[in-house]
## 1
Amino acid sequence: MGRLLSVNVGLPRDTTWQGRTVYTGIWKTPVKGPRTVRRLNIEGDGQGDLAGHGGEHRAVLVYQTDSYRYWQNQLGRSDFACGQFGENFTVDGLSDAEVCIGDRYRIGQALFEVTQPRVTCYRLGIRMNVPDMPALLVKHGRPGFYLRVLEEGAVEAGDEIVLVVAGPERMSVSEIDALLYMPGHRRDRLQSALRIPALSAGWRQSFEALLKQERKDGALTGNAGLTGAPGPAPAWQGFRSFRVSGKVRESSNVTSLMLEPTDGQPITAALPGQFVVLRLGATPALALMRSYSLSGEPGSSFFRVSVKREAHGAASSYINDELRVGDTVQVSAARGGFTLQPGHTPVVLLSAGIGVTPVLAMLHALAAEESRREIWWLYGARNGSEHPFAGETRELLGALPRHHSQICYSAPSPEDRLHVDFDARGHLDVRAIEQLNLPRDADFYICGPTSFMSDLCAGLASLGVAGDRIHTEIFGAGPSMTPGIAASPRQPPHVPAGPAGSGPMVSFARSGLNVRWASSFQSLLELAEACDVPVRWSCRTGVCHNCETGLVAGNVSYRPEPIDAPGDGNLLICCSRPEGDVVIDL
């Protein structure tokens, strides 16, 4: 039997951190007397980031005095007060090793159910003034846990905590936490966890992703439970030399390169929709590195990439003006998770501008297999001169018996013929797709400018298309995801202030920035922030389900995928430093 020692509440507030304003409810203070516990909260309490905290399955956070004593010893501190770890209930007893998911406890007048371990975020590091605190809680196996409120009622300090019902499967908070974050995701234990009805949706999805993850040599690779299932492992590490065997102008601003391996060895077939990284230039130190989607038929003996010339693009200018047939470039293996899924459902390929390239590879694959699926090809361009692959796509669609096509020109030229070169005047937007009566059960593959994709995703959702049917790929640096931090004007990516580093080369592929690593940075994430490169993260230490930085160490480039980081578990590279040259797909 345990006891409730303190009830702690606090409303979100602004706090200054690293020169930025963070809106957070991490500060909790003890209250005297009874407090009513509702389905979503305790009276007088609130959360700043409802995407990561709070809600029905995370209504009340519990932390134990035994862990208080443990951290006082570990950190050499004696200044802790109840609520120090952002918890609502400070309790005596109820260790993470003994409390099980699905256990039900009576505290005062209220009835609670244990739903998940705590998922710590960077705000705990702010509260504790220990930046690594979120990762330390996972490493040391002391996360604490969340309660769901089954019966509302009053609670107060001093109430006994009585176990009413023991949860099924008898899986403790500690075991569930380690099952996600630590190596060795035993399949039988994952299956046991999924049989617990009380387990919250986020953890359930993480364990389902781990179960679906492909095995390699009998062991799970990476940690799909944190960021979703990764694509297949790259066919080779690092770069191989490829010769430019062809160079074709596809439109007024798009040029394709045909690339063949110089060693004469075959290349592993890419999945339709994947991308490669090109290293362009005479020496690695001076090289430009960019990621480009493959635009040709998967499985061919060469790679085709198609590059749009940008007004101030160093790599696109080099490709257009300097690169010649016969020249050599360095090419990574194909990778990426934006790929055509097998099945029999309808397929909608939706793109604009140079975003056509990955979905064109998908169209090639569908035509090669003589697909009987219903296929929609929807594309938007400014006019005919900026419409690449027009003839190629018409030929591919002609080979598909159940195809539909809609081409929109936003500013057609006098030479462009309506119903011949294009089908409608205007942008390919939500209003346009509403008129097409697209099948709601289709898989939608969308690629183009960020605003184009966000508008279409929202529009498709409003039309009743399920979220797991909508697949997207962003070209160029995406927007930042920094939960709780107030928005502020951002300048374009730039070399960080201060003396130049002397370490490995860090290349931000989408932002076109090459920077030498400096020991003053604690992580690749810190370097990205110093360069004003848009990044996506939540916990800053790789231990939360929301963390998605897109950072991976090694002489290759990845889009956001998990890796096996050194240390106690599968963490994302946002907490790592480079050991060699690094390409980051941001």
Note: Confidence is low (pLDDT under 50) at residues 214-222, 545-575.
## 2
Amino acid sequence: MKRPLILLSALAATATLVGCGADGGTNATDGPPRPGGTLRYGLSLAPTCSDPAQARTNQTIYVTRQIVDSLTDQDPATGEIKPWLAESWQVGPDAKSFTFQLRDGVTFSDGTPLTATSVQKNFDAIARGLAAKAPLAASYLAGYTGTTVLDPRTARVEFAAPNAQFLQASSTPQLGLLADASTAKPAEQRCLGDNIGSGPFTYAEYKQGVSATLAKRAGYRWGSAVFGHQGEAYLDRIEFRVLPESGVRTGSLSSGQLDAISDALPQDVPQLTAAGAKVQVTSNPGLPFGIQPNVTRGPLRDAAVRAALLPAIDRRELVDTVLGPNFTSATGPLAVKTPAYVDLSNKLGFDAEAARRLLDQAGWVQGGDGIRAKDGARLSFGVMFTQAFAGNQAIQELIQQQLRKIGVEVRLEPVSDAEYTARQNAKDFDAVYYNITRADGDVLRSVFGLDGQNFNYRGPIPALDQALTGQLSAADTAARAELIGDAQREILGNGLWIPTIELSQAIGVSSAVAELKFEASARLQFYDTWLRNR
């Protein structure tokens, strides 16, 4: 029996009536920002860990980003790297060393000062103790040999090989800096909600899987050059509540029990509009959602099968049927907002007949039940995915229907986060479905490099390997972008990623909230946020 699709866009046309934008601005009649008040926020998933270095999901990072500062920040409008905890920096001519001059007078929330030794202890802990629990942070420090303390306010971070991506990585929350009392703890103890950062907020309470409460850091005065003001944050507190059901989140926002919510769905728009709320939307940079085949297992070992999957998926139908107008089709292995993105949409046009021809030519013959076979093996594979994004199940169900029309059987394998990680590490899957957010093209090396996670389990592909490693040593921005472009073409040409849709953040925001902003990686930044009616 065919399972019905879960339609997220039943009222998609109505979604365009809601005010959408990159951040919640001020009105002409607002006057100056008003300090004070508690913002109540509804998360769609529980945070997985209170430690910024170990944070992976957007819902987790919405919380952890607020308690930690980074050496640098990235301008969401231009992609330019700006000062934060480091007031200046120098990149070595071979991109193997990065020297940061720290701001004076910065302290962690336990009163201890930020020093070059703090930088050293944070990066040492990630590279040498947290790598298994913080794979994204560890990938930013690939080849890390150590941090040299040149003086109390100057740290030189060193790598064994060129690592041009590291400057952007230094702006991420995963490489945000914590006090010695936090970096000294083992991975599991860093997830309990007592992390000590230098950020504009601190943990007041943390209940794993239930809620998190942040309090304003008194005396904070070292905000990023990207921030809209200097000094303390405006909000007194932020209360994060975990509400997995979309209808419950929407009802709570509409009734005034919450001030903002994650994952506002198109069908909830009329209720939000009636309550005077709006939806703020931005698309995520990095790796768009897609299917990553294990090229060592089953029919996905055949390059012709992987090539046929590219034109067999109707991405426009995925967006129109499942997601609505706030989302777009993926047009390559990088999302549009990622620096060095190349538009490869001409390789991803929907053409079921072309897909059938590729399979015919490769000897995959359609059987009586419509599924193809070759040498006694059915053209059948599983796709493993989690519910980290609300639309994953519905998207996979529609892809399953689309691929069946060309004679491909897809088995859907929804799993828990724990099972997902365990099976990835054991190479126990045919294909996985996910995305990764990062505002730098080096995300391709992290995902597809032989020294990265390499869930394709592929062997050497010289042209791809040269592009992925070469971009790390390219000091010139244009030269690096050209190499990242080459990598995108090779990834698609070898069928290592079957792109589907680009992820967008859709945040429901009440009329009481002003200046709720997205940072460069499409995660929320509450530092400039204030409440009109508190």
Note: The first helix runs from residue 12 to 15.
## 3
Amino acid sequence: MVSAAASRRGFLGLAGALAATAALGACEGEPGTGRAAAPRRGGTLSAAFPGFGARETMDPHVGRQFVDMARHKAVFDKLVDLDDRLRPVPRLAERWQSNADLTVWRFTLRSARFHDGRPLTADDVLFTLARILDPSSAERLAKSSLSLIDLGRSRAVGTRTVELALHRPHAELPSLLAFTGTSVVSSRYRDPARPVGTGPFRFGSFTPGREFTGHRFDGHWGGAAHLDRVRILSAESEARTNALRAGETDYAHEVNATFARTVTPGSGLRIVSAPHGGIEGLLLKTDRPPFDDPEAALGLKLLADRPRLVDVVLGGRGAVANDMYGKGFAYYPDGVPQRERDVSEAKRLLRRSGALNRKLTLYTSTAAGSFVGAAHLFAQQAADAGLRITVTTGPPETYFTDILRTGTLTSHRSGAMPIPSYLAERLLSDAPQNATAWHHKDFDRDFLAAQSTRDTAERTRRYGALQRRLRDTGGELLWGQSDWLNAVSTRLHGVAAAPPNTVDWARFDTVWLA
């Protein structure tokens, strides 16, 4: 319904102030220990994440790895975040609304303060967006997705309202402002090595590839954290789980199914599982042989024994995928038949495209616990059609950057995000993470048309058509939806069973140590 005030301004409310609450995690292992009688204040939490060495950063507009994102969440806040169903929920913006043609949006800010005591204002938001969109910087993660904002026509309306004008209509600007690389910084922000944010923890120290420390900020707008201090550590998979078992840490991010099977009652550990929180697959470069021929790409997709990959690689903790991202999320197309394994048809397509006679290399890494096992199992499955695939392993620290330029066939994993964000970040011609080299101007135009469509049903139809096209001719072989597994000690409480890229993922202001 349009309020009288909104009608006078010509604005229509598209999102209200939804309450973002931290749900207690779905935990396994230690019976009855997922809850404590009441939160306890104090203590230091040590949490271990996959490390990326010297490339790690405190710049909230650059770091794309989970360890970076966890540090940024501790120190900064976004205007908007996503709930576990990928719907936008308020953070620094307590409400928002658009005009009738989706070309101007207004965001009302809550009362919040930076760690140096200065209040958050609309000018800080405009400074943040100008920094992200700086044409001299190619590293800003959200630059492409937020490029529709016309900064020249955007303005502060008083101190606590910011009006964002767009170059073209867009129905889901709040979701774009919730994505990685959109944290709000102060207009006085200059040195990423000495960050001052509005988040629940004040910056303490940071050594790339090793450790970050943050201290509770008692003036946080959402209430003070229970913990006195948080340490976020960088470590490889085995080191993370060994440290957890030894009692050196209380939280290990992203453990594999093999480790999860070892967590039993009495172990002092439990698994926090976000069902279907990730997507697993392979990426095929579509700008070079053999996968510049869609028949070769389809042939490879038909070789995947998806149930076997889910059972073996994920330990049954997941579900088969259908070469489309985002099952269960808004805009996922209904009624698309599940792609089944068909070795004879795959062999026919691979032979006709010339791919069957090639020796392919699958470039993988230990950057994710599932990658190497999935790569070797898929190579075995491909051999059933006579296709020879050699598996090689690259450094985890640079893997996700390396595959943007190299490798014909590579490993892929993504956390949860809205389907339009996934397409914008990975599958537009100028997308920053376009590892399949999918460059099609008509696809870009159709995507922009979907974004600009106000009617939800028609917008859903348009996004569905894009997904179907990618499934049939694109370079993503998406074989499984993995449960997202984190492991915690039984003395850590309040951990949410939330997938990555959502408001309650890696959220350490709401946890406590018993």
Note: The two ends are 46 Å apart (CA to CA).
## 4
Amino acid sequence: MLVAPCTLPSIAELAPDRGCFVGAAEDRCEIFAWDLARGTARRVTDRPGLGTDVADVEPGGEFLWWFDDDPAGRGTWRIQPWAGGPDTPALADTAPALNAGLAMAADGTAAIGLIDERGFSVHLRTPDGQTHTVLTAAGGGELIDVSPDGSLLVVEQETAVRVLDCSGTAVGELPGPLWSPGFRPTAGPPLLLLLAETDDGYGLWTWTRNEGQRSVDWCRFESEASASWTSDGRVLVRHDRNGRSDLFLLDLQRRRRVTLPVPSGTVLDARMQPGDDLHLVRTDTTTPPALWTSSGRRPPGAPDLPPLELPMTLGDRWTAGPDGRIHTLFTAPADRPPPWPTVFLVHGGPFQQDRDAYDPAVVLLTASGFAVARVNYRGSTGYGPAWRNAFTAGVGLPQVADLAAVRADLVGEGLADPARTGLAGWSWGGYLTLLALGTQPEMWQAGAAAYPVADSVAAFRAGTPALRSLDTRLFRGTPDEQPHRYAQASPMTYVDAVRAPVLLVAGSSDVRCPPEQVRRYAQALRARGHTPELLEVDTGHDSRLAEEQATVLTAVVSFLGAHLGGTRLDGHIDARAV
């Protein structure tokens, strides 16, 4: 039986006894309707071999929306009565595409964001079921919100925010770097909340059609924050700093900021539900994510796993680097002395971070005798805008230089065994793993890369519009415009230098890091006398199926155990561990 991922439920703004959530269904995730008054749930979706994990409930609580996608993530929105009944397509004449946002107004207006091979589009569905397209644009984008009265839409494109009326006409062009949590849900003229990056931190702004942008000058944060409105117009802020989270409640009218008490660790998500019912998902390195609510009401079957009692220690280490100190979360076995065989578990992104949060890979590697270094290299979030934007020396190479600096620090302190250090990562972390193996071959004895970018140019050509837009920004152009930058940052460029054993994992339907460029990298290694392990799984960039996740994790931990001298797994990881 799968333990469902811990995510926040959606609750209808105007019918707070109705909601929906992602729950466990045999070996996968499915959507359930939640009757909060009765404490009961009804299963909404049933997709064997796929699962479902994206859904929302209309503000009035009459209908549920869920995204019917394939392993590659392409799909269509479907609508089902909250009490049950047949599904109907939200956009009858629209081809399957990647989900790029859903927003619904109290009057029944809904806006849908999609991405396909042509780019980003936004579609409007009126309360009577009529639909029309209000925006088409090249590249990526995301629909953020629709105003409570249904008159305005807000989208993010690149790092800027655009406000549109329902005809698609831009009424606000707000240059970035900016992000938006959406419109204030209370009555009155639509008021938009914005998060803005400055040279020394992040601040809040508001925007209205008549007054434009106004700074909330009394409230600033030194590193990234995410925000959401409460039903009465206050703002809940989750602030990530140095791998851990703080939570604040802001009253913009009274210029008041209150710190909400949360235990040390990471708040993965938080929302103030109707009735001032605070919902948050909290975790730390030894505690699996769990949903906590101030009212005590939780969906039936919500996981509540206790902290793991494992012989492991967690410490924070800071290493000097060219752009500042590099933060590492260092986990080690408590039942054996150093130096330990050490795995650098490289996070994805690039604009993400490693946190004091539960990760089954950390637990399993530590239980297998490894120390685990989770490095928040340059480009990571949680350390301010200068650190996040430290790409002036190129893409990839500054990040692997940070990994090397931390490795030297751990070896110098007698914590890491220099003859038994390896790398593992998923997505962008897999990319950095391969890049480090090729540019620093003398440092690493093994590397496992799951769903990686192995060839920067090939991944750009075959990727989605959103990822091509990101690459164009990071590399300051396309491969045709900046061939040297792409070559300098591509693992394929350094394949001749690779010495260590390599495990590659490719998803057959992966549109973010397409499988063909991973296969070609494996072929290039074989042509040079290497014998890489290539595991191909029938999934997209990730999987909602517990057994598929467990298969990949088993392969990674077993591979590292075999080549770095830890304890090799003799069997398959139980799907419940992931």
Note: Residues 139 and 469 are 6 Å apart (CA to CA).
